[in-house]
Amino acid sequence: MQKTNLETFQSQWLLAALLALLVSINTIANFLDMYTAILVGNIVYVPVVLLLVTVSAFTLIKLGHDGMHGIAWISLLIASLLWLVAEVVWIFYELVLQVDPFPSLADVFYSLGYPFLFVFMLAYISPVRKGITKRSLSIAISISAVILFFGLYQTIDSSIYLNSLDTFYAILYPILDSILIVPAILGISLFFSGRVNFMWTMVCFGILSLFIADTIFMYSQMDDTYYTGHPIEILFYFSYVLIAFGVYDQVRIFGQKNKIQR
C-alpha cells in the first residue's frame, strides 16, 4: 500500500512538473516574438501527442483488448494516432507550405478522432457506471445542450464573415465537443462524490481542457486573433498530457492488482 501511494505521489508531481514546463515554454516563446511562438507552438505538439500515442499503445499491449477496457484502449489509440497525423499535417501546412492550416486536411483527421475518443470515454467510465445518478446525467446533458446552443448561435451569427468550409467546422466542433463533454462531466462528478481517485479523473479533466481549448479556438478564429503558439495551446497540450497520465495510472493499478492476486 505504501509503495502504491508513493507511486501515485510521484506520478502527480511528475504531472505537475510537466504541465508547468509546458506553460513556461509557451509563455517564454510568446514573450520573445510571434515567429518564435508559432515555431515552438508547432514543435511542442509532436512530443506531447507522441506521449499519448505511446501510452495508448503501451496500455493496449499491457492490458489487452478484451472487454470494455479493451474497447477503451483500442479507441484511444486510434484517436491519438489520428490526432498525431492531424498535428503533422498542420505543421506541414504552416511551416513548410506557409499557408493557413485552418480549415485544412488536418481538420479531417482532428474531427475523425472525436468519435473514437467518445467511444473510449463510454468504455472508460463503464466499470463505474453504477455510481452515475439520474440527476448527474441530467445535469451533464443540460450543460452540454446549453453549450451547444451558444456555440451554434455564435457560429450562425458570424457565418456571414466565414466561407462554407469555415462555417462547416465552426458548426462541427461545437457538436462534437458537446457530445464528448457529457461523459467527462459524469466522470468528474464521480470524483467529487468520492467514487473514483484523482488520477482516474485526469482523463476527464483532459477532455474538459480539450473542450475549453476548442471553444476559445473557434472564437479566436472568428475574430482572427488565433495563431499557433497562442496561449490557448497550453490547454490543448494539457488535454493530451492529462489523458496520457490518467490512462497510464490504470496500467499501474492493474499491475498492482495482478501482483496481489499472485
Task: Describe this protein with a few key phrases.
mainly alpha, about 260 residues, disordered C terminus
Total E-strand runs:
0
How are helices and strands ordered from N to C? HHHHHHHH
Report the total helices: 8
Mean pLDDT, all residues? 90
- Helix-strand makeup class: mainly alpha
Envelope shape: globular
What proportion strand? under 5%
Q: What kind of sheet is the major sheet?
A: none
- Overall number of structural domains: 1
Radius of gyration: 19 Å
CA(first)-CA(last) distance? 16 Å
Which consecutive residue ranges, at least 5 long each, have pLDDT under 50? Answer: 258-262
Q: What portion of residues is helical?
A: over 70%
Describe what you observe in this structure.
The two termini are 16 Å apart. Helix 1 packs antiparallel against helix 2. This protein is mainly α and 262 residues long. Helix content is 84%, strand content 0%. It is globular and about 45 Å long. The protein has one domain (2-261).
Structure in a nutshell:
This protein has 262 residues and is an all-alpha fold. Helices cover 84% and strands 0% of the residues. Helix 2 (34-63) runs antiparallel to helix 3 (67-97), helix 4 (105-125) packs parallel to helix 6 (164-192) and helix 7 runs antiparallel to helix 8.
Per-chain topology:
Layout: H1 2-32, H2 34-63, H3 67-97, H4 105-125, H5 134-158, H6 164-192, H7 198-222, H8 233-261
Helix pairs in contact: 1-2, 1-8, 2-3, 2-8, 3-4, 4-6, 5-6, 6-7, 7-8
